Amino acid sequence: MDFKNIKPEDIIPPSSSSGKQEYTKSAILIILAVFLIFSAFSSFYTIEPNEVGVVRRFGRFVRTTSPGLHFKLPWRIEKVNKVKVDYIFKEEFGFRTLKAGIKSQYASRNYDDESLMLTGDLNVLQVEWIVQYKIKDAARFLFHIRDQRKTLRDISESVMRKIVGDYSLNEVLSSKRMEINDIAQQNMQEILDSYSSGIAIVTVKLQDVNPPESVQPAFNEVNEAKQERERMINQAWQIYNQKIPAARGQALKIVKEAEGYAQEKINRALGDAERFLLLLEAYKEAKEVTRRRLYLEKMREIVGKAHKVFIIDEEEKGILPLLRLENGE
């Protein structure tokens, strides 16, 4: 068979004009159907309960839509960005959480470029903190700042470094942590509002604050010395609280005894003086009787204290024969 002499009309017979028209109509109908189906699919969108839709027409913001099913112009005339406005986002500084849970897993990489900071008393600390935030204005969040996450992180790091530089090492480690959290949150919110960022800071919280690993042993020794100083101070106060009240009580007792003794002497002196005055009056009225009475009273007092009494004659020259010097008496 001679293929060189074969003509195209011998293989494909010429179509009629009616067949061409039917083919054209079918193609147009198919294209129109595809166009309508694609337009329908690209004209409806759904917003989840925790989201809002930000609609742009030819790149320009026109409206926001609430959760539910909505219509938009198809063929990329209007585009929709879905933004989670009821979701709490979290940024970590100085560390990264790989898997959260009862036993959270953290990245082993060192983030000293974020965490190393200089305190107000020229000490170096590794400060780890978190920032939780939410989107309060979706349109501002999308269009007023270019890189939202990086901007937030840069602002947070700048604010935290400034605040830590205003406090001493001990204040950042313990006593002023809550105050630093509050000031950092307030300052970050002020800067973000000045940028019209549409971001609301929910919380700023210091996590771990420690000295760098290179100075950790020296820092531990300093802490141990401080703890020892506190222990000795507390021990001294304990001894003080034991000894001082007892000494004060003893001193008060001695003072009261001295006051009682002084009052007793004063009362006795007043009584003796009163008795002397009465005796003087009696002596003036009856001198002999009063003299004898005083003599007898004194002798009764003296004799009453003696164990033995010897009465001798006035003419006796000595009393030794009358005394029994037995048994040392």
Give an overview in words:
This protein is α+β, with helices and mostly antiparallel strands and 329 residues long. It has helices at residues 8-11, 17-43, 112-115, 138-143, 148-164, 169-175, 177-194, 216-285, 287-305, and strands spanning 44-47, 51-57, 60-65, 68-71, 78-84, 89-93, 97-99, 105-106, 116-118, 124-135, 199-210. Strands 6, 9, 10 and 11 form a four-stranded antiparallel sheet that branches. The mean pLDDT is 83.
Give structural attributes.
about 325 residues; alpha+beta; Tetrahydropterin Synthase, Chain A; 3 domains; four-stranded antiparallel sheet; three-stranded antiparallel sheet; rod-shaped
Could you write a compact summary of the structure shown?
The protein is α+β, with helices and mostly antiparallel strands.
**CATH architecture heading of the largest domain:** 2-Layer Sandwich
Indicate the proportion of strand residues: 15-25%
Q: For the terminal residues, how far apart are their CA atoms?
A: 182 Å
CATH domain class name of the largest domain: Alpha Beta
Topology:
Blueprint: H1 8-11, H2 17-43, E1 44-47, E2 51-57, E3 60-65, E4 68-71, E5 78-84, E6 89-93, E7 97-99, E8 105-106, H3 112-115, E9 116-118, E10 124-135, H4 138-143, H5 148-164, H6 169-175, H7 177-194, E11 199-210, H8 216-285, H9 287-305
Antiparallel strand pairs: 1-4, 2-3, 2-5, 6-10, 7-8, 9-10, 10-11
